[in-house]
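Retro notes, item 3 of 5
We never archived the inputs for the adenosine monophosphate complex last cycle. Fixing that now. Sequence and ligand:
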Amino acid sequence: MEEKGNKRSFGGLKLNTALLQVLERQGYETPTPVQQRLIPVLLAGTSAVASAQTGSGKTLAFLLPALQQMNPDALPVTNHYPRLFILSPTKELAQQIFEVSMPFVRKLGFRSVLLQGGGKRNEESRKLEQGVDVVIATPQRALEHIEARHIDVKGLKHLVVDEADMMFDMGFVSYLEKIFGMMTERSQKVIVSATITPRVVKLAKAHIKALRRIELDPPGKIADSVTQMLYPVVKSKKSALLAWLISSENLKRVLVFVRKKELADGVAEALRAWDYKVGILHGERMHQERRKALRAFREGEYQILVATDIAARGLDISDLDVVINYDIPHVKHDFIHRVGRTGRAGKEGIAMTLVSPEEIEQLKDLQKVLGSKIKEVILPDYAPKDVKSRGYLMQPPQRRRRTPKPDSKKGASSPLNKKGKKRKTTKRDGFKILDASRKTEKQNSRGKKRK
Ligand code: AMP
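Structure as it came back at the time:
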């Protein structure tokens, strides 16, 4: 299967036969760049802080070297004690890591447990008592079990903190500090973060002596496979524009990001009023509700998922054609995480961002982080009056596109009629801005080449 010594193959990364067999069985053919960089460093026993985005294959990058180093042959079968601890900020992410790790853990004869707030504590304690090798947990619940002496961290050989910057955003750093403080110096510690922020570096330096820093994805980089568009819009028309875009572009699976939980509920309600099947993902929903919403979206039962940044960070939702930013996030790097949900694994993706005049300053800041301007699409029925011809970012005037009036014979594309009542979307809702904008882009690039 693999060519020895070549880092572009799993075999070349010096993974053992058992792990290679599972990789093959699971259909993983070649290591991702994150795996190529991280696996050899971690297999050598080095502690590291690494930047890696969701969708980059980071879970296997930190999991496989730890499992391999745990050496199942040296394991007394009757005495399973935790040697690998993986901490994740959200229950959903912990669950995701648990599922990805399961086939590898089983193959090596290890046992693993998932500990998460909202889970059944007694059941968790019973599993810990029976003996486990791998613990995947949210930090608060992990600490509860440690303090109750259900887990002895002194024997821990490997600690992984995933999505470290999000741990800070969610106020979990004191739990991390305590857990780090309990570990021996010799244990391998790996901190993975979408962005290596100064506070992540501070945490790493405080607890890791020989630290290797591995920057994998330069922050601020959005994949070239993502076509981005910016829609100037009057604030009160955002929901209508959102519904209109989904129907007129015939978008099948849409992840809509909003800043606040209250807004997530409001936007979902507005979309439901137009007969869309919508799930909601935010921190105040019960764990079961969040799981249900995520599953229903993954399985196509919900066409739209409305999520806050924190609730959706780190989740692997594959095959997304389009991400819509209902607003500009507070934390600018969240914009990159949002948009990174589409255009993965070499596929084309689309990111649409709705911006009202109130957000113009945030938009300017965002452009600085991105280092490039997003193409504006002016829809006269939705755009504020003052930007109808030139756009927010003073790009050259674009050809005006008239959005069809709801009652026009040519095609009633808006799911709203004039009285604001819902109506069923129809197949005639085919106003292909995306195609038009792609064509213009191609024409522009041809024009540039000619020059
Ligand atoms: P992660 O960044 O760990 O959340 O992984 C994102 C997705 O990539 C998961 O669905 C993995 O199953 C998948 N994945 C991880 N490594 C590879 C690989 N080497 N080849 C193809 N898919 C992969």
